Amino acid sequence: MNLEINKVSLSDILHLRTLFLQENNFQIRYNSCHERGWSDSYRISIDGNHVGYGSVKGKEDLSQRDAIFEFYLTPKTRKNANGAFEKLVTASGVKCIECQTNDHLLSSMMFEFSGHISSDVVLFEDDQYAFLNAPEATFRKKILGDISFDHKSEPDGDYVIEVDGEIVATGGFLLHYNIPFADLYMEVREDQRQKGYGSLLIQELRKACFDAGRVPAARCNISNKASKATLMKGGLRIAGYMLIGEIKPEYL
Asked: For the chain, how big is the Rg over CA atoms in Å?
């Protein structure tokens, strides 16, 4: 068997990435790295047949290209996954692996090829209809002339929760993820927290997201218990975690 790893352009692996996206029917956190030119592509060939690819980006510095974040092989060739991944590590010169736990193939490579594995991000997917209600609150799209509040962590969103004529929360959804997924975000004014407005906003943003033809998803820091509870109360569930691991010395 002749197994080759070659650095190629993104266009050379797009047909294989389509198969990757079809199989992994969930939000890909680093999807936009490809379109924004933040990744390098490596094509995997066995006996002259193009059977997979690996994608590399910078873990912290985008210019470093030191982390594998996507790895795909056609199902019939996955018996060669370990050999292909080891050659990908050598060819790309990476030091780390970043993956989602719901990406089963790359997760398995993570546990075999890396150590010092940690996680700092929780991933969420749509779960069930929520029946939250706050009679004093109105959910609507932002309009010209709306006076918002100073945001500490998230951008000022396109949708708001209004109470007594004041905006107490804003949010929206980002569309630079793999279709049909979108990423929800929101922030509640500090003096209006723990009143249920955040989870109500998530509930209504999910509806707006579906109306736009997208499937809602979200993420938060693993230590942010308030955001985690808000997302789950608003109708999302944990889909997985982001993992970061360092390539074991014997593979470098």
From this structure: 21
CA proximity to 215, closest of 132, 103, 125: 125
CA distances from 232 to 7, 62, 151, 195, 239 (A): 41, 32, 22, 15, 11
**Mean pLDDT within 62-81:** 95
Q: What gap in Å lies between CA 234 and CA 196, rounded to an integer?
A: 9
Tell me if 104 sits within 8 A of 73, measured CB to CB: no
Which segments of 38-151 does DSSP mark as H helices, in order?
81-92, 104-113
Task: Using pLDDT thresholds of 50, 70 and 90, give the confidence band for residue 128.
Answer: confident
Rounded Cα–Cα distance for residues 94 and 55 (Å): 11
Superfamily the domain 129-234 falls into = Gcn5-related N-acetyltransferase (GNAT) (3.40.630.30)
Write the CA distances from 24 to 12, 103, 191, 217, integer angstroms. 20, 7, 40, 14
Q: Is the pLDDT of residue 130 over 90?
A: no
The architecture that CATH gives domain 3-119+242-251 is: 3-Layer(aba) Sandwich (3.40)
Helix/strand/coil percentages in the chain, nearest 5 = 30, 35, 35
The domain segmentation of the chain, as residue ranges, is 3-119+242-251, 129-234
| Residue 210, H or E segment | helix 197-211
Average pLDDT on 205-219 reads 97
- Is the model's pTM score more than 0.90? yes
In a 13 Å sphere around the CA of 134, the CA atoms on its Cβ side amount to 20
**Alpha-carbon gap, residue 111 to 245, rounded angstroms:** 8
